[in-house]
Each structure stands twice: as structure tokens, then as C-alpha cells.
Design goal:
Number of strands: 6
Strand content: 5-15%
CATH topology: Rossmann fold
Radius of gyration: 20 Å
Number of domains: 1
Order of helices and strands: HHEHHEEHEHHHHHEHEHHH
Helix content: 40-55%
CATH superfamily: Nicotinate-nucleotide-dimethylbenzimidazole phosphoribosyltransferase (CobT), large domain
CATH architecture: 3-Layer(aba) Sandwich
Distance between the termini: 58 Å
Number of helices: 14
Shape: globular
Structural class: alpha/beta
Length: about 350
């Protein structure tokens, strides 16, 4: 797994300066387009170009089951993971609709459902039949973690082969907010109460139960949670590991990443803890309703593009934000300069 810590070059500062200079010449007061200006400038530096674009978007959905679901930490039964994967393959989920709207390439990867499914279109890179119950033992072995990390890397390789300009990863796994909350607690040092929310729709009593399960699991494994990779192995999910692998490799390859909700942001946090070079390659699509999401965004000192009160996951919030990036690029590339428009600036 040495590849995880290989250096990721930083976005090109020269193209950053060129993009900033162009923004000063466009027919608007400086800074008046706010975040749209910042996005265009950052994408120009990431893509090393005068004309940034987000015309080819790649969406990978990683799916896996969680042994922690045995502890009644989700409002939905575990079978829903498999049923939703079939819905993705049949193009019926929210992320399918949004991906079609932005003309993104869409794929689904089974990283570890309880049982493999035989349906046209699924990519199979299984690390196991779901993770173990991490309230009783480590969620996965090192070998399983490596398989899941490499599944993420493979998805980015496919995206690069098609010359994609933006990588979006989604996740599907009943009980995965429990895993994400546990990971975030350990990595940030913040309280379980701050980082444990309703997930798929738990009531207050059930949220308290979920927090207790997380507390007991962290106590059980506390002597082993000394590195980010150990945190992933003991508390994580196969789909979370795939997200981490995808995010790290995207940064190493200079491919901008648009991060989705709480689980995806926790995976980004893991990626940054494993390889700090990745930090500059991540854009954060939205802040969800999940309690811990804003907490982790604040910890990372990043601003999300949107606040839509979403809490669906599956990459839907990220894909919903793609048109914002596309508009930012269009404005940067196509607006007239003051000189072109013959407008007096002094």
C-alpha cells in the first residue's frame, strides 16, 4: 500500500496567477461573482490551462454492506443496500437522474455486498461479503482493506482513460454513517455526540443508541487506532476504503475531485490524514443535514458550494453541484474583458 503516500503535485501556481489576472479584466467588479470566480481559478490551476472545463464528468458509486448493521443502528434493513444497487443499475435512483442531466459517465462497483449480484453493468471488485461487526472485532483485515482501496484506484484509472475532467464518487451501504461517525470521532478528537446523527432517519432515542455503539467500539479498539489506515481497517467500510483510494489516486494524477456528503467527506478526511498532499485537489459540493457533516467541514476548514438540506448520499449532492462548476468555467472562459467590450475602467 506504499502508493497511498506517493506525492501529489500541487495545482499549478502559474496558471492560478494567469486565471486571477483574467478575472480582474472581465466585465464585472472584482470579486462580484464570489465563489464562481474562486472555482474557475482553482480549476484552471488544477487542470493547468487558461480555459478550465468540466465537460467530462465521471461518477463511480461504491457499494458494500456493514456488519455493524447487526446493532440496529439504521432505520432501514440491510437488504436495502443490494436493492438500491439494483436500482442504480436500472437507472432509477436520484444519482442516476442527476448524472444523466449533467451527461456524466456513471458506474456501480460492488466492493463487498453481503452476496454478489448477477446483473448486467455491475463492476465486481469485492473485498468480502460485507465488513465484520466492528463493535466486536476489526471491520476488515489488511488484505481486505487493500482490495477496497485498489477498487477506488481502478475507478480513477477508468476515468483517466476516458479523459475525464472531474471525478465524483458516491457510496451505498446501510449503516455506513455509523462507520463514518466513528472514524470522524477518532480522527478529529471531537465528541461522539457532535458527530453522530440520524443517518437514514433515526429518532433521538435511536441516535443515542447509535452513539453508544460507537463509543463501545472505539473503546474496544482504542489501542489499535493509532494511524489513519488502522482507523479505516478497524472502523471503516469497504466502500469508504474505496472512496479513500479513489481520492488519493485522483490527487496523485491531478484529477479534481468533487466530494459529496458526510460519508464522502469523512473519506476525504481519511485521505488527507494518510496523504496531506491531497488536500488541494478536493472541492466540497454541499453541506448535508447529517449532524456531523458541518463539523467535519469546519475541521477541514473548507466551504461547501451548496446548502440544500440533502441527506441522501450516493453521490447525489456532488452531482447536483456539477452545474455550478460548469457555469464557473463558462463565465471565466466566455465573458468579455473590459477592453473587448470597450468599457472604461478609470
Amino acid at each position: 500500500m506504499n502508493w497511498l503516500t506517493n506525492r501529489a503535485e500541487q495545482p499549478d501556481n502559474n496558471y492560478l496567477k494567469i486565471a486571477l489576472a483574467r478575472q480582474e479584466k472581465l466585465t464585472k467588479p472584482p470579486g462580484s461573482l464570489g465563489l464562481l470566480e474562486e472555482l474557475a481559478v482553482r480549476l484552471a490551476a488544477m487542470q493547468q490551462t487558461d480555459t478550465p472545463s468540466v465537460d467530462k464528468v465521471w461518477v463511480s458509486i461504491f457499494a458494500a454492506d456493514h456488519g455493524i448493521a447487526e446493532e440496529s443502528v439504521s432505520a432501514f434493513p440491510q437488504i436495502v443496500t443490494t436493492e438500491m444497487v439494483k436500482n442504480f443499475l436500472n437507472s432509477g435512483a436520484a444519482v442516476n437522474v442527476l448524472s444523466r442531466f449533467v451527461k456524466a459517465h456513471f458506474e456501480v462497483i460492488d466492493v463487498g455486498l453481503i452476496a454478489a449480484i448477477d446483473q448486467v453493468g455491475i463492476i465486481t471488485e469485492r473485498a468480502g461479503n460485507g465488513t465484520a461487526n466492528f463493535s466486536k472485532q476489526a471491520a476488515m483485515s489488511q488484505e481486505q482493506m487493500q482490495i477496497a482501496l485498489l477498487a477506488g484506484k481502478s475507478a480513477v484509472k477508468r476515468a483517466l482513460k476516458q479523459q475525464s475532467k472531474l471525478f465524483v464518487a458516491g457510496e451505498m451501504g446501510i449503516a455506513n454513517t455509523t462507520s463514518a461517525s466513528a472514524i470522524a470521532v477518532v480522527l478529529t478528537g471531537l465528541s461522539i455526540e457532535q458527530l453522530t446523527g440520524a443517518g437514514t432517519g433515526l429518532d433521538n432515542e435511536s441516535i443515542q443508541h447509535k452513539a453508544k455503539v460507537i463509543e463501545q467500539a472505539i473503546l474496544l479498539h482504542q489501542n489499535f487506532l493509532d494511524t489513519p489506515l488502522n482507523v479505516l481497517q478497524y472502523l471503516g467500510g469497504f466502500e469508504i476504503a474505496a472512496l479513500v483510494g479513489a481520492y488519493i489516486f485522483s490527487a496523485q494524477q491531478g484529477l479534481p475531485v468533487l466530494i459529496d456528503g458526510f460519508i464522502a467527506t469523512t473519506a476525504a478526511l481519511l485521505a488527507i490524514k494518510i496523504n496531506p498532499d491531497t488536500y488541494s485537489w478536493f472541492l466540497y459540493a454541499h453541506c448535508s443535514q447529517e449532524r456531523g457533516h458541518q463539523v467535519v467541514l469546519d475541521y477541514l476548514q473548507v466551504k461547501p458550494l451548496l446548502h440544500l438540506n440533502m441527506r441522501l448520499g450516493e453521490g447525489s449532492g456532488a452531482v447536483a453541484a456539477v452545474p455550478i462548476l460548469q457555469m464557473a468555467c463558462k463565465l471565466h472562459n466566455e465573458m468579455a474583458t473590459f477592453q473587448q467590450a470597450g468599457i472604461t475602467t478609470q
